[in-house]
């Protein structure tokens, strides 16, 4: 019996009107990555202040991705704040990795949900408040993965461990990154 070309999930099943992930397309991406393992892709975002603490982020040719602050941080509460958006990026990156690896391994995913929490001290108020010595940014991030699939829980656990090892956003959170800020 041949391996199915796709793995369907509850949210990507044909009865939801969406196409499943194409396994042959995934295999093409895998081959391309193995062909040139040193390839680097530069991603871009242009951030434009719209008023108070609301910002439009322009990525590729997509509609602007809005980031704002909640009222407690003097924002208009129209979108996630930057720290929440970073948790969303982390959760989405890990979820994509889990789904892609499941498809590559022939695992059918029935459901996949991640809950993320992050702890940070905001008393410095972006450098305008208490600037005494303290960690800036998240000090702890917790990810809870609820994945139902046609494999034993031990295989899901191993899959999660594999994915966090290779998630670009997880690795950005967990290791130092060279950063440059300059004025124009």
TrEMBL record:
Protein name: OsmC-like protein
InterPro entries for the chain: KH_dom-like_a/b (IPR015946), OsmC/Ohr_fam (IPR003718), OsmC/Ohr_hydroprdx_reductase (IPR052924), OsmC/Ohrsf (IPR036102)
Pfam families assigned to the protein according to its UniProt record, in alphabetical order: OsmC (PF02566)
Gene source species: Thalassovita gelatinovora
Domain of life: Bacteria
Gene3D superfamilies tied to this protein: 3.30.300.20
